[in-house]
Structures are given as structure tokens and as C-alpha cells.
Amino acid sequence: MAARGVGLLSRLSMCTQRSQVLRPIHRRLSCPGTVAADARGEQPSSGSSETGSEDRTPKKRFSEVQKERREQAQRTILILCPNKISEKKFLKYLSQHGPINNHFFFESFGLYAVVEFCQKESVASLQNLTRTPSMGTEAAIPFRSRFFNLKLKNSSNETSEQSCIPCCNQSPPSSKKLFKLLCDAESIDDQLNTLLKEFQLTEENTKLRYLTCSLIEDIAAAYFPDCAVRPFGSSVNSFGKLGCDLDMFLDLDEIGKFNAHKTSGNFLMEFQVKNVPSERIATQKILSVIGECLDNFGPGCVGVQKILNARCPLVRFSHQASGFQCDLTTNNRIALKSSELLYIYGALDSRVRALVFSIRCWARAHSLTSSIPGAWITNFSLTMMVIFFLQRRSPPILPTLDYLKTLADAEDKCIIEGHNCTFICDLNRIKPSKNTETLELLLKEFFEYFGNFAFNKNSINIRQGKEQNKPEPSPLHIQNPFETSLNISKNVSQSQLQKFVDLARESAWILHQEDKDHPSPSSNQPWGLAALLLPSIAKSVSHDKKKRRKPASERIKNLLESIKSSPENSTNTNGKRTVSTQA
Ligand code: CTP
Ligand code: MG
To answer: In Å, what is the CA distance from 103 to each residue of 46, 100, 152, 489?
Structure first.
């Protein structure tokens, strides 16, 4: 369940001409904002990275967003189109089944259209007029899904009227483009916001994610008619990067529940069911069957793997048309709740997402994270570290989970498998932070904070927002916010943690050096975030190690200590340490 992200920025190919925009010596400081666009129900690409104004627009609850998007997806279809097609005629042809609310095209080994009807009935109408193809030598499994193939009866007519179909981009920017954008930015704050804007999920990509879940739900509904397949993780928690995996949760909990209170008289009717020895075995059996269905009947579902012996059993597959790597789990309601919690944190202050995206990209650029499971840090753990760091600022930028629990109403009460997952769900009732630190300062301080964190004895805990003694000896201990006996980073090895610490120290050092040196705009040198994403610092760490010198991290730690104690780094009136940006 890990993301694919930005590849390593190759140093030579990246060193394009520095922009003509001169970066001011006193970089522009942006004020903190408050709300992510998703929470306003807007397109995530339209200004969620804005800073500088307190947004008073009411923010949508996570459950409201999920409900709206799910309902929207149920009215939506996916069509593989011929490459040469007239958009106008295509829409006219489809509108015979009812009005169309929204549509877009994208390319993924073919031209695809996502078409959202105004009414669900239009989908049924289209299905009734759709035929199952005759396959010649092969045989087709006649499954009536919402994934269609559009064929031209006479391709020559159409070609003459085709227009260029605008396609929505579903991929993150190339390293080259990203590098250029970062080098052209006006300040480090601007760089972080640019990176967020380029990497965050677009409105179309989000719609495609909900549609893919809805298509899988249709398949699962063959066995469990009232089930729901809900996206969770980075697809919905506001921290997803373009290209991230699609975590899905097969929700069977609603089945049969709604009838219980309607029973009258002294009778109560129950379904005859098969009993199995444990919840885990039930989960494995259900996922095994759904995995078979996806493999045998799921249009576009390929590479289906049943990973049923994992701590959290899952079915992994690729959804070819959307290009998503999907992980389907069931009995995983706590993960959905932690997605909601992260969504709230992401929406409380616009600096949160900008910082998380940059740290995730930084970690990916230095191979601290990987799309392959292993002993490395995950994006989920990195997000927790950023949240924890922001809780530790003075004044805090984010509240603790315990505080969010104290704000909860009776309707927010949520106990899952004996774990108390209660917190306030109405974002509008959480007061914005008074902290006005810039992203530039936060980025630097993040690296310094974790470059010097006592990982050997302390645990990271966003519930209390303070370090705790580690309850077990794993190198990195980050407490699961709801299943508090679990360490979400149990997989991380000592060497991977050390690599993280070394890189954090190196990065803090680079940013401090830049403050002192102010590289000239004409020097063609990558600066700020762009400099941090280059692989050179990782190389210098391993190079130093090979030479058996005093570790780079030690030297940098000492240098940082000397910067801290130097008089140019003063303490401001709030008692916060500030770092001078003067040369
Ligand atoms: N999760 C968890 N404990 C873990 C790993 C994952 O509770 N040790 C839950 C989290 O809610 C997480 C979700 O499962 O968000 C999906 O996991 P994963 O795909 O690894 O993380 P994402 O947050 O989706 O990030 P990415 O973009 O890397 O997929
Ligand atoms: Mg994920």
C-alpha cells in the first residue's frame, strides 16, 4: 500500500537555466492559511495551496465528501473510445439516455472517457442498449458492468469530423518540469506550494478513484448486494500524490443492519449464515471469493494477487484503464477512520499539506520510501511525523488527537473493535492556530527536529502530541492513533532510520547554508527545495561512510549546534527561536 512518486532528480539533466525571475534576498513570507480546497468541496487543483487569508467558507465533513462522491460515481461510466472521435457527436449519442452532468477524457493505453450522467437511470438505459461482444475464437464472460467499449460503425465518416480531444493529465510532472518550476519560484514558501499544486490529486483523478471503487463495488455486489467499496488512505485523506495507490475497503457492515429496528411484535428474523472460527478467517474467505471474481469477471482488473496471510489480508490488482494499483481490504474500518483524521488535519491549516507533500517528495527522491514493501519508512509514517512536529510548534499549528476528542459530540462517538476512535468530525468547530511561522522556517525546523530526535528512547504519538517512552525496541516507534498498542513503523530498520536522520541533518544544513550564502540568481545552482531533492546529498552520506570518516550526520549536528548558539540566531518575543536570513 505504498505510493509511487517523483523519481530521482538527475543532477545533470536537471540543471536547466535558472529563471530570469530574480529571487529576492528577503524572500517573500507567506502567511498561514486555514483550509484545504477538498474540504470546501472545490477542485483540489484550484487553490488549495493558497496561503495568506483565513477562509471562513464552511468546510465539508469527511463523511459528506465521501457520500457525495460515492453517489456521483454511481451515476458515472467509463468508456474506452476510438482514438478518432468527435466529442460533440459522442456526447449527443450518450445524451439519448439522459442529460450529462460532467465528462472528461484521459489517455492510458487508449483514449478513455469518464461520463457522469445526471441520473442513475441513464446508466441502466445505456446498459440495456449495449451488447456483449462476440469474440471470434475466444469466448467472452457476459458481465454487464459500467465499463464500456465504444466502436465506430463506419470509421471513415467519423475521422473527417474528429476534433482534437483535450485529455486530462493523470500523472505527476516530470522531474525536469518540477525542477524548473521550483527554480523559478520566488521563495521557499512558493516552492512548497508549487510542489503541492503539481502533485496533488486533480478533481478528475479523484473522480476516477471513486469511479474505480464504484466499478469494483458492482462486482462485489454480485455476492453482497448492499456492500460498499470505499476508498481510504491517501486517495481521500488529502495527502495523495498523483500516481499513488488506491486503497479500497469492502464495507459489509451495513448489510442487514437497517432492518433490525423495523421488526415488530415479538419476533426477530435472522439470516442463516455460515459460521467460521474467527473474524480473520471470515475476512480471508470473503476476500478470496472477491479476488476470484475480480480475476474472472472484472473488466480491466489484471494481476490479481490474494495476499491473505498479511496482518491485514488484502487483494492486490491493477485496474488497467485507470492505471491504479489497487489494494482491496475488508474489516478495516479503523483505517477509514484514520483517513478521516488525516483529512481533518490536512484541512485545518494550508501549511500542513504543503509540508507533507514536500517531505514525501524529498523522501522519495532519496529512496527513503519505495513502492515495494520493505524495511523503509512509509508515506503514512512520514505524514504522522509531520503532524507530530506541527503539534510541537509554539503555539501549536495542529491540535492533539486527545484535544479533538474533547471537542466531540455524542454523534461523533465511535468505538471500533473496542478502540475509541472518537474525535470531532465538524471541522468548522476547530479554532485555527495562531501560529504564523512560514513554510520555509517549518521545513528547516522539521529537518532539525527529526535530525536530533531521540529515536532510541522516544515514541511519536499524535494522540498526546508529545514524546513518550518507547514501549518496545523497534528503531522507529510511531504509535497508531487508534490501535495504540500498534507501531505503524515497526517495519523500519535501524539502517533506514539512520539514513533518514543523516538526510534530515544534511537537508537542515543545506537550508542554513543557503540563508548565509544567498546563492546568486545567475549561478544556475538549484536552490531551496530543488537543492534538497537532488540526489547529491544522499551520495555524500554514503561517500563519507565509505571513507570511514566521522559520520556526516555528526559533523552536521555539531555545525547545527554552533548555528543555534550563535548570536545572529535570536529568540523572538514569543520565546520562539528564529533563524536569521541575513547574510
Ligand atoms: N495504515 C495503517 N497502519 C499502517 C499502514 C497503513 O493504519 N501500518 C492505514 C492508514 O490509514 C493509511 C492506509 O492504511 O493511510 C493506507 O496505507 P498506505 O497505502 O500504506 O498509505 P497511504 O496513506 O495511502 O499513502 P500512499 O500514498 O503511500 O499510498
Ligand atoms: Mg495508499
So the answer is: 18, 8, 20, 41
Mapped onto helix, strand or coil, the DSSP state of residue 260 is helix
CA-CA-CA-CA torsion sign (154, 155, 160, 166): positive
Ion ligand 2: residue ranges with CB closer than 5 A: 1, 233-234, 245, 247
Nearby residues of 137 by Cβ (< 8 Å), 6 or more positions away: none
Which residue puts its alpha carbon closest to atom 7 of ligand 1?
335
Inter-residue contact 484 to 505 (CB < 8 Å): no
Question: How many angstroms separate the alpha carbon of residue 233 from the centre of ligand 1?
Answer: 5
Category of 109 on φ-ψ map: left (φ > 0), alpha (ψ -120 to 50) or beta: left
Reported as a single tens digit per residue, the pLDDT across 107-119 is 998 999 999 999 9
Distance (Å, rounded) from C-alpha 371 to C-alpha 390?
26
Element (H, E) at 538: helix 536-546
Nearest atom, ligand 1, residue 241 CA: 27
b/e 362-389 (16+ beta carbons within 10 angstroms → b) = bbbbbebbbeeeeebbbbbbbbbbbbbb
Classify 82 as helix, strand or coil: coil
User: Atom 12, ligand 1: which residue's CA is nearest?
Assistant: 233
Probe residue for ligand 1, chosen from 247, 328, 376 as the CB with the greatest number of ligand atoms within 8 Å: 247
Are 101 and 116 contacting, i.e. CB atoms less than 8 angstroms apart? Answer: yes
With 0-12 / 13-18 / 19 or more C-beta atoms within 10 angstroms meaning exposed / middle / buried, residue 575 is: exposed
DSSP state letters, 160-178? HH--PPPB---SPPPHHHH
Write down the residue that cell numbers 483529512 correspond to.
Answer: 343
Does any ligand 1 atom lie closer than 6 A to the CB of residue 339?
A: yes
| Amino acid 507: pLDDT | 96
Over residues 69-117, the pLDDT tens digits come to 999 999 999 999 998 889 999 999 999 999 999 999 999 989 999 999 9
Burial class (CB in 10 A: 0-12, 13-18, 19+), 74: middle
- Cα 293 to ligand 1 centroid, rounded to whole Å: 25
The pTM assigned to this predicted structure is 0.85
Name the residue with the closest Cα to ligand 1, atom 8: 488
Can you tell me the distance from the alpha carbon of 175 to that of 165, in angstroms, rounded to the nearest whole number?
A: 26
Q: Is the CB of 370 under 6 A from ligand 1?
A: no
